[in-house]
# Entry
Amino acid sequence: MKRFNKYFALLFSFILTAAILLTGCGAPQGASGGSGSSGNSSGPIKIGLVTQLSGGGALYGKLMQQGAQLAVDQANEDGGVLGRKIKLLAQDDQANPSESVKVTQRLVSEDNIDAWIGTLKSSDTITDIGITSKENIPSFVPVGVADNVTKQGFDNAFRNVANNTMQITEMVNYILKEQPTKKMAIIAENTDYGRGIVDTFSKLFTKGGRTVTNKEYYNVGTKDFNDQLTKIKAKNPDGILIAGLVAEGSLIAKQAKSLGLDQQLYSFGGFMGKQPMELGGQAVNGLIHTDYFVPTAKDELTQKFVKDFKDKYGKIPDSYYSAATYDAVNLYINAVKKAKSTDPKKVNEELRNLKNEHTVMGDITFDKEGQAATKVWISQIKDGKQVGIYHAK
# Structure
């Protein structure tokens, strides 16, 4: 009986040791917390996209999804990456901060994504990258433009569009070089976004030797701008800068015309695409604004993207939501190819070392904070069309 017990104990010890060794050999290569599919060489490379796919902002979120899906489909048609297919996992954050956190957490902990892209809102983007950064997952910001997105100390965050200060600087430089406007009135939404534009634009514009006559504010959702516009009219500026989005901005343009204000109108990225003409009609004709993407740009890659997008979805991409997200997917794919791995540390290193990579949105080089050094266009609404009129080199 004692011999049997001794034999059984030795056999059990051998089996236990073998099981531990086998378990160790089966661990995902480079795994640190369960995220990512780098160890599954036969499974798809997973890219998570978090954006608004329902409600009022769904138009923009779906454009992001379409741009990302086009890039994924093209890569898969070319055989995938590292012998693996790519899978896009698009999640609806409903423009709700808590939902954005929820779906990002699920993508990271349950779906084990290899890369993350999002969102429409800069504040949600910051919170979500706080989650992806714990696993060092390469994370791309193709839409949110608030300056502080890349000021959080994240080593895994990469924004492939110009930030707010960059687009304001481009607008001021354009006016100083190309426009006769000497006195500018500003009407802005009373938010961090609006006040940030007012502060930065005023400093740069006055530094250039010109004058800001008015700084008028309104609350988001306002319908009547008579008080602000009457004050502006009394100062008789040469131009009017609208620091807000198109819903209020188109009404401001209409009411300004009704009051006899025929000054040159200026604005920013909120006036991209078709919506300004649909909402503002003739009142926005001639308005000049910053633009992140011009589909008529005479660039071979841009024209190929426009054609491919139209062939797939039956429409021309007229704003940056689809183009920038398309670029984000391809930036990740190219970094994986260079790294010859989906290991997040290696991919992030390739992205940080990127130099002048040509994309639909322009040549991309990321600075130490993950912000792309890229330029914006200046566009003008002319007879119902968006026309690129200036692009700094």
Observations:
- The chain is about 45% helix and 20% strand.
